Here is the input.
Amino acid sequence: GAVVSQHPSWVICKSGTSVKIECRSLDFQATTMFWYRQFPKQSLMLMATSNEGSKATYEQGVEKDKFLINHASLTLSTLTVTSAHPEDSSFYICSARDPASPAETQYFGPGTRLLVL
Amino acid sequence: DAKTTQPPSMDCAEGRAANLPCNHSTISGNEYVYWYRQIHSQGPQYIIHGLKNNETNEMASLIITEDRKSSTLILPHATLRDTAVYYCIVRARRTGNQFYFGTGTSLTVIP
Here is the structure.
């Protein structure tokens, strides 16, 4: 199957700083990528849909000014958590939609664990 | 969006078939059923998908009822490495085809 990578795999930062997470589709071009967040013992929660060359679409309740998404190329989307606080500590996962798949299957990255102190 | 219902947890003996059910009674005609699994602290892994017909790949089989209101994921010979949370997802109809995850089924394969 298609491969999606994320960087970094984990990050620890101080409260008030910004953190950037990268999501790359390694062997296919993804016009659409998605960002999820997962808290311990909970399911994945969709945060936003990232479209190459246009603004991201955020789910209800997700602050677009806090979670900045940039999808500048067909293989890279970035999520920046601005002015991070301890409550932003979570497991962040991206996925990319494979346009070659008739069912538009999504492939997920390995996730980035963020800890805000 | 079609919603899915899965049992919260299941056990399966190692080497036996694991049958994971999913109810999606409000699915519409053009919506696919996808199955993913998430092993602890990893990103979800794609398993299989289907529309109307039963499907099989190297990982699993997917049985979809004729009315498409439910499906079953079958792992033919479960191993300890199959212990994970399994998610059944029906693709959203809204633009962008987002996936919305339910709570899934936590499968424990027992030695």
Notes: Strands of chain B lie at 9-13, 18-23, 33-38, 45-50, 55-56, 61-64, 70-75, 84-90, 105-110. The interface with chain A takes residues 32, 34, 36, 38, 41-46, 49, 51, 87, 91, 96-104 of chain B (CB under 8 Å). Chain B has a mean pLDDT of 92.
